[in-house]
Amino acid sequence: MSGIVVLISGRGSNLEAMCNNTTLITQIKCVISNTSDALGLEIAKKFGIPYTIVEHKQYKTREEFDKQLALIIDSYNPGFIILAGFMRILSSWFVTHYSMRLVNIHPSLLPSFIGTDAIKQAFATKVKVSGITIHFVTDKLDHGPIIAQAVVAVMPCSNVEELANRIHKLEHLVYPFIIHKLLTGKVQVLDNGLVTVKKEDCDLITLSEFHSSIFY
To answer: What is d(CA 145, CA 177) in angstroms, rounded to the nearest whole number?
Structure first.
């Protein structure tokens, strides 16, 4: 197993961040979308990455969709499956099939603000800080062993859009960085369920803008 398959549903901004990483782009074996109008497909085309569409609406059950999705993923034999704005809740079968190989990014500091509209929830609650969480996926929504978290200040953001832009900028920096760590064997899951990520001297250079806010 090697490389990654990226699952998307929408504009693909995190996919674009991966593609702009000269080391990571060579590891993307395929992009799969569950919608035919996902803007992220144009990014795959632009960078010459194989892509396919598996429309969930064409399947009667979640499990049927997931099994077709898995057939395509398995044909690429990836090391990891990366969720990048993939707006489908995956079945227990799918999560078990890719146990500790399925990775998601969520725009909050989990376990706070699970589910959709996490950024709006954080802004409305007037918390002092929010951020992102990168984690392995389990069959419990927005749970699973946490690989890394990164923090941004909510204030002085004057509206939700400003906070969203701040969080997305952080996502685009940290997600490719952590995926590279996964692919190079620098991430280890301990027997107690905690995840450790090997730190290297070059990390502070790679994460020069946000390194003081990242915990991994």
So the answer is: 18
Q: Which residues contact 28 (CB under 8 A, 6 or more apart)?
A: 3, 4, 5, 6, 18, 19, 49
Q: β-strand 102-106 against 129-136: which pairing, if any? A: antiparallel
Quick one: how many helices (H) and strands (E) in the chain? Answer: 7, 10
Tens digit of each residue's pLDDT (9 = 90 or more) over 6-15: 999 999 999 9
Q: Is 211 a catalytic residue?
A: no
**Per-residue tens of pLDDT for the chain, all 216 residues:** 799 999 999 999 999 999 999 999 999 999 999 999 999 999 999 999 999 999 998 998 999 999 999 999 999 999 999 999 999 989 999 999 999 999 999 999 999 999 889 999 999 999 999 999 999 999 888 889 999 999 988 887 789 999 999 999 999 999 999 999 999 999 998 888 889 998 876 665 556 555 557 787
Pick the catalytic residue from 56, 97, 106, 180.
Answer: 106
Closest CA to 173 of 4, 3, 18, 11: 18
Run of H or E residues at 95: helix 92-97
Would you say how long the chain is, in residues?
216
114 C-beta neighbours (distance < 10 Å), count: 15
Report pTM: 0.93
Distance CA 39, CA 53 (A): 12
Contact 82, 5 (CB under 8 A): yes
Tokens of 18: 């991966």
